[in-house]
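Ligand-bound model needed. S-adenosyl-L-homocysteine.
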Amino acid sequence: MMPHLQGIGMTSPRTRERMVKRLSEQGISNRNVLEAMRNTPRHIFMDEALASRAYEDTALPIGFNQTISQPYIVARMTELLLSSGHISKVLEIGTGCGYQTAVLAQLVDHVYSVERILPLQKKAQAYLWDLKLKNISFMYGDGSLGWPDYAPFDGILVSAAPPALPELLLQQMAVGGVMVIPIGQSGKQTLQRVTRTVDAYKIEELDAVTFVPFLAGKE
Ligand code: SAH
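Prediction:
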């Protein structure tokens, strides 16, 4: 085990338990989601200087101008993704530090994770390997293209905000599949849940949220 995987004070299971209690008070009710977050050492995904703040309900910097989503948002998006029942294949856009990936990997059969900043993805990959989460495939690329080789997906989770629903991601949803995605310019984004039916897409506009922008191309 890497030294920073060993729990100390602020990063102990007890701290995680408090985070989970707070999440259920905030309205997260899916027991499997709460259990996955109880099991996942969030602090290992951050720089040591910030590890002691890992369980606060706040977004924190992970380098390259990006942030790790706050625990409530991770829980909320995961719960929304799983709301229609069992999900086998999930496409994640924006691996970031890999924390959301770790939570998803414990709840679905396989996660396909795309990131446009290579060093972030490499780091995430190493942390997820340390946690022995092996049901994850990584691609360095532009998430607006999705990952056609493995489409269609039962679930798509996007953790950066585009101005509108990306066409290619809609096309890569399975019938009955769900996409959870923040949409809009900074300052006025809403979290949307899109469900694909046989002949249409049902769009629900849910919470007001704050995400980093969804950017085109690779860095
Ligand atoms: N779930 C991640 C969120 C990181 S922030 C975490 O908790 O760490 C959003 C991430 O989306 C950033 O890493 C950013 O580089 C990535 N991103 C933004 N636009 C993207 C795109 N078009 N394709 C792939 N990744 C993208």
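The chain is about 30% helix and 25% strand.
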